[in-house]
Each structure stands twice: as C-alpha cells, then as structure tokens.
C-alpha cells in the first residue's frame, strides 16, 4: 500500500525528530495505534532498562492493553503495576519509585484536573522521580499533535525531559499511525 511505505515513515520520523528537538534528542519509532505505542514502550523499557515496576495514575486511560491489565485479564511478566489517584501520587512516590521504575504520566490529565497547579505538581513529581533515577514516560496520545497549542504538551514544560513520549491522534490526518519517541542517550544500546 502506497500510504504505508517505508519512505513515508522515514520522512515522518525525520520531521518528528526535528519538531520535538526542543524537548530533547529522541529516536522515533512508528506504530499503528496509541495503544500499540504505549504497549511497545513498556516492552522496550523492560528489555533495555530492566523496568520491573510501572506506576500509573488511576484516572488516566493508557489504551486497551492497560485496561486489560487493570482488570487482571493479562499481565506484563516480571513487572509490578501500581496505581495511585492523582491526588495521592505525590505522597506515594517516595515509597515506590526506584531505578527500575517507569512512571507513566498524561500531562493533559494534570492540567485538566488542577489547571496550572497540576502542571506544577507534575513538574515536582518528575524532578523527584528523576532524583531517584526513575524513568518517565509521557502519554500524549490524546494531547499531542497541536491539541494543546504546541506539537506536544511536553514542549510547554521545558524543565521536564521525559525518557519516553508516546503520541498518535492527529499525527497522520486519519491514517493509522503512532509514535514512540525514545531519549537517545538512554536508549543508545537499541538495535
């Protein structure tokens, strides 16, 4: 199919790397859906960063796969999944975050629930998590691609550099595609 050619994906990849360069230097991998991008980001985190714990915000939706995980229909082998309410996340972070932890955040959710105060809370959470060498993933499937005024919501928070960013909706004008952006310094060993 001409719409799904390697040349088009490579061109998209280069364009995206250029657009998000103000956030950081990222390797870009294309997938077909937001759910698939998030699921594969977890698989990549497990393989290359030895992630053994994922922290989620209860109010966030991270696709069908995490919906099945939440309902005990499937499991990520060797990964403990912890969920906290948005208001309790800051209190819980100290006890649960470590070097092999992936904190999955949806920036728009913080803003939607608490406005600018939510963004400040998220920044503080990210700084604390980074001090403990926790990896941070932004789920921008709903908020990315100019939904919030910039290509990614992360571009509005220059102090935070997520290790992984996933986004999809609006990316290809209705064609099925999604992206995982992986911070190059962290994922330099990828083949």
How would you portray this structure in words?
This protein is α/β, with parallel strands linked by helices. It is 36% helix and 19% strand. Strands 1-7-6-5-4-2-3 form a seven-stranded mixed β-sheet, sandwiched between helices. Helix 4 runs parallel beside helix 6 and helix 5 (107-114) crosses helix 6. The chain is globular. The model has no long low-confidence stretch (mean pLDDT 80).
Which descriptors apply to this entry?
191 residues; globular; alpha/beta; 7 strands; 6 helices; 7-stranded mixed sheet; single chain
Tell me the radius of gyration. 16 Å
Largest beta sheet, briefly? 7 strands, mixed
Strand content: 15-25%
Q: How many extended strands?
A: 7
How do the strands of the widest beta sheet line up side by side?
1-7-6-5-4-2-3
